[in-house]
Structures are given as C-alpha cells and as structure tokens.
Amino acid sequence: MLKRSGIILLALAIAAATGSLTAQTVTSGLRGPAPLNDEGPAPPMLPNRNTSEKEARNYPEQPPVIPHSIDGYQIDLNSNKCLSCHARSRTAESQAPMVSITHFMDRDGQFLASISPRRFFCTECHVPQNSATPPVSNDFVDIDTLLSRASPGGRR
Amino acid sequence: MTTAADEPNAKPEAKRGFLARCRDFALELWQVLIRPSSVFALGVLVLAGIAAGVMFWGAFNTALELTNTEKFCTGCHEMKDNVYAELKSTIHFTNRSGVRATCPDCHVPHNWTDKIARKMQASKEVWGKIFGTINTREKFLDHRLELAAHEWARFKANDSLECRNCHSADSMDITKQSPRASVAHQRFLFTGEKTCIDCHKGIAHHLPDMRGVPGWQ
Fold it and tell me: Binding of heme c 1: at which residues (chain A) (predicted)?
C-alpha cells in the first residue's frame, strides 16, 4: 500500500516537473535569447581584420595569425597563393615576412630547398582574424604576465 | 541574253562533269555582273543596295552579339561545368553590390576591331568543340595551363584592357583600400611597372599547375 502510493506520488511529481519544464522556455546564455529547441537568427557576419599589421604572438610557438584578408586564395596541389608573396624568393618584391625556416625541414629535421610538403597548406595553422566578439571570452595569460605576477617588480 | 548561249549546252549537260558545270555557271554570273543594268534604275539599285547593306549589317551584328553572351558561352558543357562553375564562387559573380562580370566582359575585347580579331581566333575554339579537345574534365585539366597561358598572354599584351574596362586606375581610391592593396597598387600599378594580370591571376577561375609561372612557386 505504501509502495503503491509512493509510485503514484512519484508519477505526479514527474508529471508536474515536465509540465513546468515545457511551460517555461529554456534558454542558454551562449545562444542568446533563442530557446534551446529553436534555431535563432544567425548573427551578421563580421569582416575579417585587414590591417596587414603584424600581431604579437601570445606564446613563442604560436603560428602567427594572418593580419589580412585571404578571400579566394587558392592553396592546393596546383598553386599556393600565399607563397607568391611569402616565399623566400618573393619577399624582396612583396616585403612580406618570409615563411619560417622551420617550414623547410622535413620530419627528420633535414632542410629542403623549398617548403616541406607537410608545411605546404598554410591555413592548417595560420588563420585570419575576425572582428567579432566571441561569446566566451578568452582568459589566456601569457608567460610574461604570469612571471611578473609571481614576482612583482619583474624578474627575467 | 545568256539563255541563248546556254541552249546548245542543255542537251549534253547530263554528260558534263560537275566542275565544268560550276565553271559555266560562274562565267555566266560574271557576264551578268560586269554589264550595266538594263532593267533597274540607278536609284533603285542604290537604295536596294543600302537596304540590303543595312539588313546584312544588322543581321551580322545581331549574330555577333548573340555569340557574345554568357548564355551562348555556357551552352557548351565544357564551359558550363568547368570555368563557369568556378566563376560562381568568386567576387566577379557574387558580391555586395550585385554588379557582375559575364564571360565576354573579360574574354572578348569591347573595341570593334579587336573584337572581330578575337572572334576570328575563336574559330580554333569551334574546332576544339567539334573534335572534343576538352570534352571531359580530365582533358580540360590537361589543357588548363595552355588555355590559361593564352589568356595571360593576351591580357599582358593589351595591358589588361578587359580589367580596365571596369577597373580604372584613375578612379581607384587607394585610401579606401586595405593598406596592403594600396601599397602594392602605388608601387606597381601606378608606376606602370606591372599590369593587372601580373598579380591577379586565378581571380575568376581555378589555377592550373603554376610551377614555372613567374611569381609563383
């Protein structure tokens, strides 16, 4: 008897809970005001940063970001548009930074005459930057800030 | 007058060869053409000549313009499935203002004499169409470098005239360009050191294998 009333109570509670859940619109902060079961309007696409000014790297090994637009740049077996400015032989005319010497190495550390095939597809690591504000902000702290925090006054 | 001369030949005509009959016809036509008209007034002949000329020119030009449309160009699958498909994703097809370039805007000179010269060259393209030079994707890719090289050479020779039909260096406001573009245009375009096609290759279609092309790796 006790067990049966318990089951009934549980059923009632579940029914009430689902009722109240479906009644209210569940939203998520990241998605904005659009309910979870709806697809909200897409935010407008913002332009890419196009200043051509070199940006500081956040950590030494970071692949430098691309500070200009690369719309329609063909990078495939036939051609590599990036290299028509950033290749060693092209930098005098273009005044663009040369592709890092590390990109001439194959995986055994042997230097090749030109870009190693494994480093050929630039956009695998280097990306243009968009001017949109990200929904989740980045709390990355670079090593200099971290060190100066540990020992105020700075110690190098 | 000529029919009388024709009569004796009427009987053995069946035996005469085709070439001989053609020669007779041509001679007869020539006899008519070199004599002054005895039937029509000079005014009628002149006016009829003008009317025929206008009609012929109109028809010629209409036919010429008909072959100068994107619809005509993409009527062949060689163009529709390869170069036209590639054009669609570029800024010369879709962009914010909706102004777009069609095939002849870039590939046929707008100036009449140059246009006729290009149209005569295009007989080679008709040949290619008839004999299926690029009638599969593989054949097209094999010929891509050769085809592209033709266009680069043409643009280089006429100082990128078809680009400049729309993109005038005089009207180019470099303050509205990105810093990279404005520096490059001031250094290379305004000084005449380079022409558009030297840097802007592969902006409307995919590039062929660029090894050995100056400025490419």
Answer: 68, 82, 85-86
pLDDT tens-digit map of B157-203: 999 999 999 999 999 999 999 999 999 999 999 999 999 999 999 99
Give the confidence band of B4 by pLDDT, cuts at 50, 70, 90.
Answer: very low
Q: Where are the domains of chain B?
A: 2-61, 76-199
Q: What gap in Å lies between CA A67 and CA A55, rounded to an integer?
A: 7
Domain-by-domain residue ranges, chain A? 52-156
The structure's pTM equals: 0.75
Do B202 and A81 lie within an 8 Å CB cutoff?
Answer: yes
Closest by CA to A43, choosing from A130, A139, A138, A137, is A130
Give the whole-number percent of chain A exceeding pLDDT 90: 47
Dihedral Cα B198, B199, B200, B205, nearest 10 deg: 80
Could you tell me if B202 lies within 8 Å of chain A, comparing CB atoms?
yes
Burial of B160 by CB count in 10 Å (0-12 exposed, 13-18 middle, 19+ buried)?
Answer: buried
Domain A52-156 fold: Flavocytochrome C3; Chain A, domain 2 (1.10.1130)
| Two tokens, residue B204 | 């409307």
b vs e for B37-66, b when ≥16 Cβ sit within 10 Å of the residue's Cβ? Answer: eeeeeeeeeeeeeeeeeeeeeeeeeeeeee
Q: ipTM of the assembly?
A: 0.73
pLDDT for B102-153, tens place per residue?
999 999 988 889 899 999 999 999 999 999 999 999 999 999 999 999 999 9
Which of A71, A78, A87 minimises the CB distance to B209?
A78
CA A74, CA A72: separation in Å to the nearest integer? 6
Q: How far is A32 from chain B (nearest CA, A)?
A: 28
